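Retro notes (design track)

What went well: tokenization of the new backbones is finally stable.
What didn't: we kept losing track of which sequence belonged to which structure.
Fix going forward: every design gets posted as structure first, then sequence, in one message. First example under the new rule, 441 residues:
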């Protein structure tokens, strides 16, 4: 049932920053953890363990990433329930997200032999690395239910504007992971298995802390009634939204995976240079995520409150701060790009090659800004069908551009195709924005 509440708080710059900045701070910690994992295993003075942890982590991260739709879909739906002042439904959605994440994690546990087999058929490694990586994954996969449940839990916290709790959760998980890394690997000499156990314990510890954060909501009895938790219409809506976001995300991933696959056709040096520069695109995404997440929460609430003016104000304010962040990124890449490349690799030929294509990276934050922010706006409004359809159009444009431009311009053509795909995502969603705003009336 809907619950009455006071008038929704005003959308202000202070409110936007209070949502966005903790997410930015949380994102800063993500690459630190990977660096510590590598550094700890690197103390073994062997190449195979480093490669095994790297490959194992990438495989499991890619598998878990497929379920990232649970975070985005939960944020949109909970934000709208909150905007509609339906407190009971916000609690029901939390329980449904946790339930769905748990079932998905158990499914991965059952499918783990198939997952490992398929991963090494797609990306074969040496026998020693495959053996070590398989051992790593067989341990870490047991935290799959926790890792995926955390997607839903994090999405709920963002929708409820509790991004400081998201930061605390991220800091706790990373702190546990680093501490267990040092203890198991350097203290007990457990090697690759020690890194896996560290992540396993950190993810379950993170879930336990996350459940403690939402303990007041879980004490409520409303979600324990079967007709609420397993409401057919609510589950159907959740399924449709999540499915659309899944397809959109798979197509987006296909663009970046194919970008690197095509890069390999231009030789190892060009492949390595592109890989270095793509890491900087990830930094862009991390930097703009905070404002996109703020848009998700605030647009969703305005949408649920049937307030098109609130949708518009949110889009304007979050985009304004995203523009400021984008200009900072452009300045950083423009003035410090060469130094960042040197930091990423010691290979002189890769450094020289990466500098050739650095200008594409410098302009990419500006050209990708609309895509990032429109994603946040459309997720908040749960206009997932538009997201899927516009992503399909953008993917087709990218495929045609990559096929045509690489034949005449080589790797320059490939970078142009990637940038075209980013622009297409932003423009196609922007074309659908007026309809989104009207739907909030």
């Amino acid at each position: 049932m809907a619950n009455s509440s006071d008038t929704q708080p005003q959308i202000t710059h202070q409110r936007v920053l209070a949502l966005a900045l903790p997410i930015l701070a949380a994102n800063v910690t993500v690459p630190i953890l990977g660096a510590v994992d590598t550094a700890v295993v690197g103390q073994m003075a062997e190449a195979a363990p480093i490669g095994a942890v790297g490959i194992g982590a990438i495989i499991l991260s890619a598998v878990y990433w497929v379920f990232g739709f649970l975070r985005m879909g939960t944020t949109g739906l909970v934000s709208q329930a909150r905007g509609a002042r339906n407190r009971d439904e916000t609690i029901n959605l939390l329980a449904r997200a946790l339930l769905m994440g748990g079932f998905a994690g158990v499914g991965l546990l059952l499918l783990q032999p198939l997952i490992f087999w398929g991963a090494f058929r797609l990306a074969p490694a040496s026998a020693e690395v495959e053996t070590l990586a398989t051992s790593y994954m067989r341990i870490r996969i047991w935290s799959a239910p926790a890792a995926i449940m955390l997607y839903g839990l994090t999405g709920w916290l963002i929708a409820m504007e509790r991004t400081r709790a998201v930061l605390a959760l991220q800091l706790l998980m990373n702190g546990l992971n680093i501490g267990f890394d040092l203890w198991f690997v350097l203290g007990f000499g457990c090697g690759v298995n020690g890194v896996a156990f560290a992540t396993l314990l950190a993810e379950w510890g993170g879930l336990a802390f996350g459940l403690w954060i939402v303990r007041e909501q879980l004490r409520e009895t409303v979600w324990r009634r079967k007709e609420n938790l397993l409401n057919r219409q609510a589950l159907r809506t959740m399924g449709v939204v999540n499915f659309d976001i899944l397809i959109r995300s798979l197509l987006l991933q296909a663009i970046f995976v194919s970008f690197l696959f095509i890069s390999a056709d231009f030789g190892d040096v060009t492949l390595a240079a592109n890989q270095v520069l793509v890491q900087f695109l990830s930094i862009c995404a991390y930097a703009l995520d905070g404002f996109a997440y703020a848009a998700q929460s605030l647009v969703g609430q305005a949408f649920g409150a049937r307030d098109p003016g609130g949708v518009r104000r949110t889009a304007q304010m979050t985009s304004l701060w995203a523009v400021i962040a984008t200009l900072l990124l452009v300045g950083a890449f423009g003035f410090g790009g060469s130094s960042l490349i040197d930091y990423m690799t010691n290979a002189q030929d890769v450094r020289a090659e990466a500098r050739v294509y650095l200008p594409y990276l410098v302009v990419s934050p500006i050209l990708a800004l609309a895509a990032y922010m429109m994603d946040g706006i459309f997720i908040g409004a749960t206009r997932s069908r538009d997201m899927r359809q516009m992503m399909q159009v953008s993917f087709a444009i990218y495929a045609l551009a990559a096929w045509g431009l690489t034949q005449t311009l080589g790797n320059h053509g490939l970078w142009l195709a990637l940038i075209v795909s980013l622009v297409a995502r932003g423009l196609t969603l922007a074309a659908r924005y007026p309809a989104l705003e009207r739907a909030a009336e």
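Added context from the reviewer: The longest helix spans residues 268-304.
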